[in-house]
């Protein structure tokens, strides 16, 4: 793990900019809204050296905050005279409520004000992902959860999203990028493409997988033919102990062929439904394949997982994608709330006291 931590009596130990890698163009204002750049120039040329306090908060309860350490590293890297800034902050992973300040920065406006919107964005994105993961874990009943969120957004979001996912409690990810900041590695077995290139032959796809990775057990993707119960038994009978798990990834537009001759009037049979999972488990257990685990994916979120768990659905691992990286969950606001030791803010904003905030040490040789 590549994290660098500060160890100073009475201070918080944090990841620094040795962990977080930033685009050097931040220093040029490349990512900063133009009016912040203008404000910094105006202040420096006309009313310099005022000491201001900027606080950051959001507006929802029971939120898992993330992006704090990254924001501090950003300040230490790109602000002018970073050693003069006084920073108070919560920790990544803390649970916060509406209007609770998570970060306060005090210093000359011209030294750090242009970073306001970048910090808002970091906190919003990382906290949204961490909170989404946190909400899934609350209802998952200690089942394994695997992040498949790499395909749901621009690839450049993977590293930070993966870190936020880890902060919230999930370390099973699909790409090395998602695991970069905490030292994790991507994992997984086969996509539908591998079965397709075997002309739809699931057994052949599993065989060549095991030929290539002989020290692993295979997880068979059993929805390719939309016949999960049948194909679960096909691969279990063929591979026996070499089959570690089966994965159901049925589209919500489809109804599995298992239900072709069954009454489905009492439930929605589309996609990966509870009834299909129970049927797969029952079929495997009936033939003695109790060791084969069941992974489900496709459209899973906190609500669907809660429903599965409420009915004791025999799932071993949930694969979750889109719901983890919904970046509209939490939005942050940065406001100036004090100047030269006295409160001063726009109407509706106040300098909110938060005794949970702890002073952050400035690391020696922090600049990149």
**How many structural units, i.e. domains?**
2
Structural class comes to alpha/beta
CATH class annotation of the largest domain: Alpha Beta
Distance between the termini: 19 Å
Extract low-pLDDT stretches: 1-12
Shape annotation: elongated
How much is the radius of gyration in Å? 25 Å
Reported for the largest beta sheet, the result is: 6 strands, antiparallel
Fill in the CATH topology of the largest domain: nicotinate phosphoribosyltransferase
Please name the CATH architecture of the largest domain.
Answer: Alpha-Beta Barrel
Tally of DSSP helical segments = 10
Proportion of β residues? Answer: 15-25%
State the order of secondary-structure elements, H for helix, E for strand: HEEHEEEHHEHEHHEHEHEHEEEE
**The CATH homology group name of the largest domain:** nicotinate phosphoribosyltransferase
Number of strands: 14
Name the strands of the widest sheet in spatial order. Answer: 13-12-1-5-3-14
Percent helix range: 25-40%
Average pLDDT taken over every residue:
92
Model description:
Helix content is 31%, strand content 15%. It is an alpha/beta fold and 368 residues long. It folds into 2 domains: 24-129 and 327-359, Alpha-Beta Barrel (nicotinate phosphoribosyltransferase), CATH 3.20.140.10; 188-320, TIM Barrel (Alpha-Beta Barrel), CATH 3.20.20.70. The strands form 3 sheets. Strands 13-12-1-5-3-14 form a 6-stranded antiparallel β-sheet. Strands 7-6-11-10-9-8 form a 6-stranded parallel β-sheet. A two-stranded antiparallel sheet has the order 2-4. Helix 5 links the parallel strand 6 and strand 7 (172-173). The two termini are 19 Å apart.
């Amino acid at each position: 793990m590549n994290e660098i931590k500060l160890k100073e009596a009475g201070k918080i130990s944090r990841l620094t900019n040795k962990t977080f890698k930033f685009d050097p163009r931040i220093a040029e204002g490349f990512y900063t809204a133009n009016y912040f750049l203008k404000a910094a120039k105006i202040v420096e040329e006309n009313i310099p050296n005022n000491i201001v306090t900027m606080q950051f908060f959001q507006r929802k309860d029971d939120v898992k905050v993330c992006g704090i350490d990254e924001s501090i590293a950003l300040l230490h890297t790109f602000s002018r005279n970073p050693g003069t800034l006084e920073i108070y902050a919560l920790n990544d992973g803390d649970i916060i409520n509406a209007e609770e300040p998570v970060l306060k920065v005090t210093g000359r406006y011209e030294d750090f004000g242009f970073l306001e919107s970048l910090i808002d964005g970091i906190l919003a994105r990382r906290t949204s992902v961490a909170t989404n993961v946190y909400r899934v874990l609350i209802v998952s009943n200690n089942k394994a959860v695997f992040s498949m969120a790499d395909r749901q957004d621009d690839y450049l979001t993977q590293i930070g999203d993966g870190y936020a996912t880890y902060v919230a409690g999930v370390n099973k990810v699909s790409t090395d990028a998602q695991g970069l900041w905490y030292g994790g590695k991507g994992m997984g077995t086969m996509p539908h493409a591998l079965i397709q290139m075997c002309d739809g032959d699931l057994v052949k796809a599993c065989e060549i997988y095991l030929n290539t990775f002989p020290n692993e057990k295979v997880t068979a993707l059993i929805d390719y033919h939309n016949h999960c119960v049948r194909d679960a038994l096909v691969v279990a009978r063929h591979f026996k102990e070499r089959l570690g798990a089966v994965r159901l990834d049925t589209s919500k537009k489809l109804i599995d062929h298992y239900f072709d001759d069954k009454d489905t009037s009492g439930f929605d049979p589309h996609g990966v439904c509870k009834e299909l999972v129970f049927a797969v488990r029952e079929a495997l257990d009936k033939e003695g394949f109790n060791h084969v685990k069941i992974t489900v994916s496709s459209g899973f979120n906190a609500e669907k997982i809660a429903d599965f768990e409420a009915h004791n659905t025999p799932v071993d691992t949930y694969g979750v994608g889109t719901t983890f990286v919904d970046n509209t969950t939490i939005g942050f606001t940065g406001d100036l709330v004090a100047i030269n030791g006295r409160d001063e803010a726009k109407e509706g904003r106040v300098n909110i006291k938060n005794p949970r905030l702890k002073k952050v040490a400035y690391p020696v040789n922090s600049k990149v």
